[in-house]
Automatic annotation (TrEMBL):
Source taxonomy: Bacteria, Bacillati, Actinomycetota, Actinomycetes, Pseudonocardiales
Compositionally biased tracts (Basic and acidic residues): 19-34
Pfam families assigned: Beta_elim_lyase
InterPro entries (alphabetical): ArAA_b-elim_lyase/Thr_aldolase, Low_specificity_L-TA-like, PyrdxlP-dep_Trfase, PyrdxlP-dep_Trfase_major, PyrdxlP-dep_Trfase_small
Name the record gives this protein: Threonine aldolase family protein
Cofactor: pyridoxal 5'-phosphate
SUPFAM superfamilies, per database record: PLP-dependent transferases (SSF53383)
Organism: Pseudonocardia nematodicida
Assigned protein family: Belongs to the threonine aldolase family.
Stored Gene3D superfamilies: Aspartate Aminotransferase, domain 1 (3.90.1150.10), Type I PLP-dependent aspartate aminotransferase-like (Major domain) (3.40.640.10)
Domain Aromatic amino acid beta-eliminating lyase/threonine aldolase residues, every copy: 31-316
Keywords: Pyridoxal phosphate
Amino acid sequence: MNETEGVRPTPRSRRASRSAREAVPDDEPIDLRSDTVTVPTPEMRKAMAGAEVADDVLDRDPTLRALEERVAGLLGAADALWTPTGTMANIIALMSHLSRGQSFLAPQGAHVLDFELGTAAWLAGGMPRPLPHDGGPGKVTASAVRRAAVDDGFYASLRPALLCLENTHNSAGGTITAPEEHASVAAAARAARLAVHLDGARLWNAAVALGVPPGALTVGADTVSVCLSKGLGAPVGSVVAGSAEFVEQARRLRKMLGGGVRQGGVLGAAGLVALDQADRLAEDHALATTLATGLRERGWRVREPQTNIVLLDVADLRGTIAAFADAGVRAGAIAGKLRLMTHRDVAEKHVTAALNRIGEVGPSSTGSPGGPPAQFPRVG
Ligand SMILES: *Cc1c(COP(=O)(O)O)cnc(C)c1O
């Protein structure tokens, strides 16, 4: 994959090359930083060009509306609202659930805690309370939620108001929360009078990996956000779902945040195509396992992936990312680990080539710890 927009292969040739047997050219970088680096498929571009559109701020855009209704149905929600980004979907939900003087619980390393500039606190007004992963990587238990949700009633104390879950959990390595686990944690929060928001940026990955419909993973959540631009591969777009009253308020909040778009159907059309192809995520998961196995065989300390995220424990994160980049493999960093992600524009031949290239780096050559604070490649 070329880095420069101008010299990218056309989407058609890129897609055709996916299944081809030929090797990846040596000078073509393999971009495993994130599943957000995919470019729209020819089918998406065609749907975008032909989309039926209208002004979504004045009336409603019919294609965005179709997308919203479809996602609401998939998530088992009454209604849904398209947003340009997952960050906006989350802040809209948090603004609707929280006010000043309240706190919210979220598993440590959650996107809403660490990667949204603290907007949960300064924009939604809720004080974050991170919970340890006592239920396994990326997961909290119902008993921990019950303990943390106690409102002591003292006038100077924060009032716990919300539990914010994340499935799959990005910084824990794309870890899955199963339906029973999710339902029991959500029920504990509700019993303690907390609202429940589910950050499901990669809920599709969890659903495909488990072989369950996405709606099986949203039980007990008041609001759910999902991304179309991660593994599903749409160029732009997220959706936040909930009750009809929530979505009515969410539309006002989206406008307030500057997220009311006009003929957004040109973007929504790609989202609809992306949803048609959700089952394809199983390929990403299988390739992540291949990648992890190959790395382990080459001596790297690898977390076994549950979905499309492979985390490596390395002594020198900055140095290792630089060494990978020199070898032609682009990696990211999250929670002190090196992160590699499989995605739609990565085929088996890319994983094979990436393993060969990383094999030349070798785990021992990057073992020196320390170095100055790093400017890590961004992750999403
Ligand atoms: C990517 C991501 C988001 C939101 O991402 P945007 O880049 O704003 O679309 C939210 N939550 C999680 C867990 C994510 O990985």
